Amino acid sequence: MKRKKIWALGAVLCLGMQLLACGKRQTAGEEKIHVGVTYYNQSDTFLNQLILCLRERFEEMEQEGFEITITVRDAAGSQKTQDDQVKELLDAGCNVLCVNLVDRADPSEIIDLARENDVPIIFFNREPVAGDMMQWDGLYYVGADAKQSGVMQGELARDVIKENSSIDRNKDGKIQYVVLEGEPGHQDAIIRTENAVDTLKANGIELEKLECGIANWNRAQAQNRMMQMVSQYQNKIELVLANNDDMALGARDAYEKLNFTESALPVIFGIDGTDVGLLAVAEEKLSGTVYNDKEGQALAMAKLTIALVTGKGMEDIPFVNEKYVYLTYYKVTMDNIGDYLKQDEE
Ligand code: GAL
Ligand code: CA
Predict the structure, then answer these.
(1) What would the pLDDT profile of 274-287 be if each residue is shown by its tens digit?
(2) Which of 197, 198, 200, 299 has its CA at a distance of 20 to 30 angstroms from the CA of residue 3?
């Protein structure tokens, strides 16, 4: 609506002054893009890499002639801080917001602020519940399908287990496993776990769950949880399913700290394909990971940002249910790790 008014004003000026220059690109700051980004916590490895990608995409778009300013804020794990940041970003004149919610169940304050200012929001990575997404038509989400990543992790584990009978170390025909889970209430925690486990079962792998420990995506917390589990189950653990790479690496850290020999370790799987995660796959420290396409997510966010401000290019965005963009995941193993390491260097 705002944009229409600006256009109308431009048209009136144009007629009145009979200037040919009118109606060209610089019309009333039409293409000045000021993006305000806030994310839940700067200690998160995957999010930091995603934000870096987003900055790079916007830099490329600047080279294509768009005038872009990007302001990034770390909410440091506090929803209240994030609400204040959104207020500040709106006061500073942002015309699009990219919000990675601290509490994905509590976006109402942010939605109200954005609506009052008629500034659209692109939520990303931490998906608001469907009911909240319906609160206003200026709300979008860019992320990935949690279920797909869980299924893929299960398939990776199935392949390794089927190829390698020594993984069933005690030869009881079952795979004793533990799970390292992300934040409770996060769409990528429980859904990944359920689907990885269900996929293994559906593929005829007999499982015995020993324990599920919450480690909030965090490597150090995962190391702690894993130390406890190893002290309890000793060498009984044959498989570790971690909801992300950092926690998978935390599990690895625990075994290294306890001086386990390589052959006594369980197989460990992560999700994300962060730089450290990919390196660990290349070094055979992790048996596989699932690539969380941060480049694709960043590009979708950047394109949507431009489309929302300029009103052009909206039809090129592959929306599901008019508001959602889901990027696909990819399986990464020793066999194709080269493609991913290279991609990361570029
Ligand atoms: C997930 C990712 C985790 C963590 C989390 C934060 O998609 O796999 O590593 O970054 O998002 O919301
Ligand atoms: Ca076994």
Answers:
(1) 999 999 999 999 99
(2) 299
